[in-house]
Every structure is written in structure tokens, then in C-alpha cells.
Amino acid sequence: MSHPGSDRCQEIAGKPVGDCAHQSNLFRLISVSGNTVCAVQCSNIAAHPILISRIVTTPATTSLPDLWRNVVPSRLARDETLLAWLETDLDARLHFSRGLLLITDRRLLNLASPDAAGDTYDYRAGLVIGKNDHGGIGRVELFDGSARLACWHYTLAHDIQASRFVKQFEQRLTEFLAGAPATRIAPDCCPDCLTPYPDDRQECPHCNTTINAPPSTWTLLRLWRFAQPYRWQLLSGFLLMLGSTAATLVPPYLTIPLMDKVLVPYQNGKPIDFGLVAWLLAGLLGSALLAWVLGWAKTYILALVSERIGADLRTITYEHLLRLSLEYFGGKRTGDLMSRIGSESDRICVFLSLHLLDFATDVLMILMTTVILFSINPWLALATLLPLPIIAWMIHNVRDRLRTGFEKIDRVWSEVSNVLADTIPGIRVVKAFAQEQREAERFRVANRHNLQVNDRINKIWSLFTPTVSLLTEIGLLVVWAFGIWLVSHNDITVGVLLAFLAYISRFYARLDSMSRIVSVTQKSAAAAKRIFDILDHVSSVPEPANPVHLDKISGRLEMRDAGFRYGNRAVIKGLNLTIEPGEMIGLVGHSGSGKSTLVNLLCRFYDVSEGAISVDGVNIRSLPVAEYRRNIGLVLQEPFLFFGSIAENIAYGKPDATRAEIIAAARAAHAHEFILRLPQGYDSLVGERGQGLSGGERQRISIARALLIDPRILILDEATASVDTETEKEIQKALDNLVQGRTTIAIAHRLSTLHKASRLVVMDKGEVVEIGSHDELMESGGAYYRLYQAQARNVDTDLNDLPPAATVDAKVTT
Amino acid sequence: MNNYTLTRNPAGRLVCTLACGTSDTVVPVRAFPIAAPDEGVSLTGSDGHELVWIERLASLPEDQRTLIEQELAQREFTPDIRCIKSVSSYATPSVWQVATDRGDTELLLKAEDHIRRLPGGALLISDGHGLTFLLRDPAHLDAHSRKLLDRFL
Ligand SMILES: Nc1ncnc2c1ncn2[C@@H]1O[C@H](COP(=O)(O)OP(=O)(O)OP(=O)(O)O)[C@@H](O)[C@H]1O
Ligand SMILES: [Mg+2]
């Protein structure tokens, strides 16, 4: 029952059923889902209990999904061992349906459904398995020689498992044909990203970081995180608020004695007691003054605090945004992000400082008034408070609709600003093609959409406020009627009725404004949600949990089976490349072959979806992102200059650089002379996109910027694409000196610029097709040869402009 | 007019043989899969270059059209959402249980702007795993689905 070596288990939950001594080793038998039994080998099991769980819980042997757990054993022969499985989720007609592919020690088995009999493919020479994907679906195909035996489909969510499955099949097939027993794939590195496991854990430190939990809906409460630093100011503000609200409630109370002790007796023939009147009036004035002072202090303190909370919110959100990966920015539009950080954080701030404050005051006031009213006369108080539940019900009812409405308005607003953010930077193109009219129309459409959404919500909203007012009036009517009835029965005095009316009209006036809180709360909750959307977004290029610090890197770069896709489009496939320290690599290939993408991966702007990239033998995912990037000097295909002086732009990566360093870098990049020709030399301002400079000039500044930080790794993505041949030669000379001792990756379409490269890497459709020196590649007459020939034939033609026929020709003739 | 022939080889790939004698495995690709699926299909060779451009699928002889359509059916995957049964939350990321013309499944909506409006009112939803779902006519969904969807638009 126990096969040494076949220690694969598909089941973690297996219980130890016994130990048995076998030769000099001890085997622990583990029962797996009823009838599969496998053994884990360990020389001293008692001393290494952890070893067992390590071996058994490797991701390659995760347990079968529930659906299949009971089905699979019955489909296997008694002595057949299950080695690996893959769940597919599409059937042959591409309908969603679950199927299972199994690899056992002797065959491949496909179960189209739990009840299906299953198709068997016994291992034999000539079987070939293949995997590809297109448009979001992956296919695993099985061939016998050149004939296809079967094809299974899955969605890309299972892609990594499928790659693993294909590898496992190939391995098992080779073993089978060689007559060897089944062995396991080395479990010491993660099968997904090939990172070696850390010593103490058997799970990959990188692959378990995706979080897809939605943020909580109690978004506004989450603002507390930002309010916490100001809790003492908030507390004092609250106490002041308590005081000032109490002070405003004094005047109506004083109307009772003013009425009952002064005015009504006077009408009944008694003289006015001026002493009492003076006291009462002084009380009125005093309470008004007190309310004024306290109200001022409270508003001031709380406004101050909320402004600070808003500012913190903005900066923290922006800081977080800057740390997000390029993938995030790729999927978002500038206008949308701008409106989130700018206007929506402001809205939250206004909400906190104005509306929430008012609301809290109102609630306090209502509570206090209720207490006072009940203490004066419970019956009248009850009648007064009658409309309150109705209003509360209304508010509750409308709230939901309003909230979704306001979220919608926010989104539409972003749409409007997106149109602006799209068009203004592209204004040259708009003008060049005379499309002002169209852009105006696009804006008008966005605006109209905005209007529509607003109109819809205003329909509900506009009905809401007048209804509250109506209810208020009706409430007053009730109090009048009931009050007069009570007065006529001598249950209350006229003074009490007047005090009630005074209270109640304040009370309802507040209700009206309180009902407004609904909309503003919803608005700010929507705004807060959109801000927390940013804050909750985990960078897809996460900082490592246990960062490794490399003091000084030597610059040895290694890519192992690297794969990358933008969405469902595989752009880099199975790329293996090692670059030695100090080596210069030339990266060539057709436009769109994935050169810039490779650079993005090397800089860790994106993380590989499969495989791993390491520097000096350490996975770059284990290094702190910023620390790693500090070692890279990057010149991008599209140079970007920030608004500021040229010197600032050159010193961007090293703000404390001395002037001498800046000039040295500029000289090296052959930018020095043209900079001096500018009216203000190094102090000249360059615009948003370096508008005042030519393409080549911008490029040279960005070269200087990369050189200034003296990086170990230099990446030049078409660094000299937009300069004339003369200047290019000059920059090239400068670069030739600078690449000494640095690992350099240079991308160029003009192959002549890569003469210094020690190796050329030719890429095609995301794969490395050739590696070698210029001479070797010319000799072998492959892809590079054709590229070179095409350029030599037509020196002025850029590689992109090659007529397709040229390559077809070459292909047919070779 | 037909200066090429199409066949399917034993490996299950389409092979196109041009009049000049060159032959290559080809992949049919629609130029406007959403806006005009029946117009403009390109047969691209293994090196990514276009071998044949077909203006309209309907103009092809029956057998060739069937071959191309079979191949397209194997490659195209844009399930059409018929009903949204439930969503895990109104805030993204949100997991939707949907019924499509290709059976029931779940889709992961990572952010609201992964819902793309197409001219004509249809919606294209890209799921977190790289699939694209189509919602041809949001106005004609059932009330429950529409209400759920509305929260994301
Ligand atoms: N952000 C992105 N989202 C989706 N696809 C992308 C993105 N960036 C690039 N691609 C695609 O990836 C492929 C490789 O692009 P890449 O920029 O790496 O090409 P390249 O080799 O640098 O080309 P060039 O020589 O023209 O600069 C292209 O087909 C491109 O369309
Ligand atoms: Mg590029």
C-alpha cells in the first residue's frame, strides 16, 4: 500500500492511521478520502512533525473540490494513484459547466460531469499536451502526433492551475515512458511564481495577497480614523455645543412667567411688576449673549477641526494613490481621480464642519426640548410630538433612493470632468483635426446626462422639503387646537401655551433643516465611499511583508518563466533571460512585441502573472519597492517633464543633488549646450509636458535625469528615438561611457545604436526568439537577420514601417 | 474571386492555402466583434499577418462560412447576461451571480469603471479574471436585475 516516492497526497484532511517501519525509514500512513492511501516518508517522524504537514499541504496537492470528492475514487482502479487534477469550467460548446481532468500514474482522465463515464487517454509515446488562450478562455489540447484527440476549455481564472497541470502531465508522461514510478515535482518553490518558500512556511509569500473583499457600507463611520487625532478638540466642541444649545432654550421658558405673572395679570387689572420684568428681560439678554459666545466658540473649534480632517483625508488619499501600481492608473481616468481627491474630500469636509454640526445641535435641541415640554405638560407635549414619527418614516423612506441617486450624480460628475481631462491635454490633436465642435458636443452630452440624473433625483428631493414644511404647519395647528382646548379647561395657562408654541416652532424649523441632513449625509457618504475606494485599494504591486534589504546590488537580473498579461491578453509568455552584472543587453523586436512591457516588469511597475524576476538572486517582490527602484535609471519612450525648472527636472530622482552634479549629468546626456542656449539656462521653466522643448531635448533631459542617480541598472527604452542622427551619435558616445559597469538594457528600433551591446535579445509576440551577439545572429539568419536586412535595404524606414510582404517573403524563401 | 481555400487539418486548426501556393494555419478574427460582427473578418496567419480579408461573412460559400463560424464559435466568448441574480455588495469589488446564455456563473466586478457603455445602450462588463460579459439591453432586464445593476451605473 505504501510506495516510497509516491508521496503525493490530494488530501490534507487525511488522518494518520498508523506507523510502519520500512527498511530503515519510518512511514506514516495517511488515509485519504476512503480508498487512496499514500505514505509520507520521514526518517524520524516524531522529531519532525512539521515536515509532514509541509509535504502534505503543498499547493500542488490541494484537496479536490467538494463536487468531485466522492466521485473520483470510484472512477479510479484500486491501485491507481491520483497525481494531479484540473477543474475546467467550460464545456465543448463553451457553456459554463464544471468538468475535471485527472492525471493518474497511468492515464489522463476527463470527467465532463460528475455522472459522466469519463474519457480515458492512456499514456503512450506520441502524446503531446498543449495550452493556449485567447480572449479570456484557455484551452488545453491533447494531440497524438499531429492529430488532435481532445480539447478542453476553461476561463482564465484557472490559468495558473492549467499551466501547472500541463507541466505535471508532461513530467508524468516522460516518467511513464521511461518506466519510472511517479515522483513529485519539487515542492520547495511556489508553483505559481517560482519563488522559493520561506523556511518556516509552506505557502508563497507573494501569491496569497489578493484581497477581494468589498469595503464596509458604514463608510462615514470610517472617517473616525481621521477624526481620532482631534478627539480632544472634538470633545470640547461638543461640550460647548451642549452649553450653547441649552442657552438658546432659555428664552421660551422665560415667556411663561412673562405671560402668566406679568401680562395676563395686567390685563386682569393688576399693575406691572417692573422689578420682575427687569429680571426676566435681563435673563433673556443674558441667555442670548451666552448662546452667542458659546455658539461662536463651538463653530470655530469644530470648523477648524473638520478642515484639518479634510486636509488629512486629502493628503493621505493622495499618498496612497501615489503608491498604487500603474495597473490602477491604467484603469482609471485622470478626471475621475482628480474629482475624488479634490472636490469630494472637500464635500466631506463641508459636511463635517457644517451639516453634521448643525445636525448634532438639532438633535440635542430636540432632546432637550422634549424633556422641557414633558416636564411642563405631558399631554400637550405628546400632541406636539405627534408628527415626528411620520416625518422620521418619510426620511427613512426617501433616504435609500436619494443615496443611490447621489452616488450616481458623483459618477456623472466624474464623467464630465473626464471629458475635460481627456480633451485639454490632447488639445493639439483636437485642433489639428478641427474637432472642436465634436469635443464640445461630447461635453454637452456628458452634461446632459448629468442633468438627467439630477432631474430624476430632484423629483424626489423637491417633494420632500415642502412635505416636511406642510407637516410642520399641521403640527402647529394641532398644538393650537389642543392648547386652546386645554386652556379652556383651565388645565394650562396662556403662558404655557405660548411657551409651547415658541418651542415648537423652533423645533419644527430644526426638523426642516434636519431633513436636509439626509441628503447631505448621503452625498458625503457617497463621496466617502469613493475616497475609501482609493484607500482600500491594495496595490497590485504590494510591499513585501518581510522585506529583504540589499545593501548594494550588483545588477544581475534573472527572469524565470516570466509571463504577463494585460487583462486577458498575454503579452509576455514564458520568458527566460539572465543578464549578468555590467552586461549591456540590446532588446530588439517588432513594435508591440513586448519590449516596453518587459521594462515595466523589470521596474516592477507591474508584477509578473507567472514566473519570477530576481535581482542578485532575490525575488524583486521581496524587496521594498522604492528601495529597489532607486537602483534603476529609466529613460522612457515618452519622456515626461514636470512643471518646474530644468535643473529641478534633472534632479528629480535625487533632489539634494549639487549643481555640479546636475551639470555633469546634463553634459553626459549632451543636454548641457542646448540648455545654455535657453534664455534662463538651467533655471528655465518647462511646461506641463515640457511643451517648450523639442522631443529630442526632452529626451536628453530625461537621460540626464536617469544618469544623475548613478543607477546600477540602466534602462533605455528608445532613449534616442527622437533625436537626429548627429545628436544620437553624441548621446551614444556619452552612453557608451556610462554603461560601463552598469547592467544596461537598451531598446532600440535602429539596430545600429546597439553596436555596443554584448548580447542582443530578439523578441517576438512576447517571447524571446533569439539571443546572441550581432555576428552570431547574422550568421544564423533568423529573425534578427531579417530585421537587419530590412533596415539595411531601406535605411530610412523605421522598423514599424516595414511592409508585411517583406517578412512574408523572407519566410517563404527561407 | 476566391483565390484561397480553407480546410481543417487533423490538429483541428484551419489551414488556408492561397492561390500562389503558400499555406498557413489561420485564425479568423472579427474586426468589429461588437459593433458589426458580420462585417469584416480577417484570416491571420501564424505570424500575425493578415492573409485574407473577408468583407462580409454572408458572401462566402456555405462550406467555408461554416468552417469559419465554427472556428469563431470556439474562440469567441462573450456571455450575454440575461439576469443578475444577486450581488455580494454594492461597493466594488463585488461578486455577481448571473445567468447568461452560456449558463449560470459568477463574475467579479473589480471597479465600477469596468462597466463600459457602448453606443446604443448595451453594456460591456469586464470581469476580474479577464472575461468579458455583454449586457445587450439593460432596459429589458427584469426589475430585480435592473435595480441591482442601477446601483453600479
Ligand atoms: N496598458 C496596456 N494595456 C493593455 N495592453 C497593453 C498595454 N500596454 C501595452 N499593451 C499591449 O502589449 C503589447 C506590447 O506592448 P509594448 O509596449 O511592450 O510593445 P513594445 O515592444 O515596447 O513596442 P514599441 O516598439 O512600439 O514601443 C502591445 O500589443 C500593446 O498593445
Ligand atoms: Mg515600447
Helix and strand topology:
The complex is a heterodimer of chains A (814) and B (153).
Chain A: E1 15-22, E2 25-32, E3 36-42, H1 49-56, H2 66-69, H3 71-75, E4 82-90, E5 96-104, E6 107-111, E7 119-122, E8 127-134, E9 137-144, E10 147-155, H4 159-177, H5 224-227, H6 231-248, H7 250-267, H8 274-323, H9 326-331, H10 334-376, H11 378-384, H12 387-423, H13 427-432, H14 436-488, H15 494-536, E11 557-566, E12 569-579, E13 584-589, H16 595-602, E14 610-615, E15 618-619, H17 625-629, E16 632-635, E17 644-645, H18 646-650, H19 659-668, H20 672-677, E18 685-686, H21 695-708, E19 713-717, H22 725-738, E20 743-747, E21 759-764, E22 767-772, H23 774-780, H24 783-793, H25 804-813
Parallel strand pairs in A: 13-20, 13-21, 16-19, 19-20
Antiparallel strand pairs in A: 1-2, 2-3, 4-5, 5-6, 6-7, 8-9, 9-10, 11-12, 11-14, 14-15, 17-18, 21-22
Helix pairs in contact in A: 6-8, 6-10, 7-8, 7-15, 8-10, 8-15, 10-11, 10-12, 10-15, 12-14, 12-15, 14-15, 19-21, 23-24
Chain B: E1 4-8, E2 14-18, E3 23-30, E4 39-45, E5 50-56, H1 62-75, E6 81-87, E7 94-100, E8 103-109, E9 115-117, E10 123-126, E11 132-135, H2 143-150
Bound molecules: adenosine-5'-triphosphate and magnesium ion (MG).
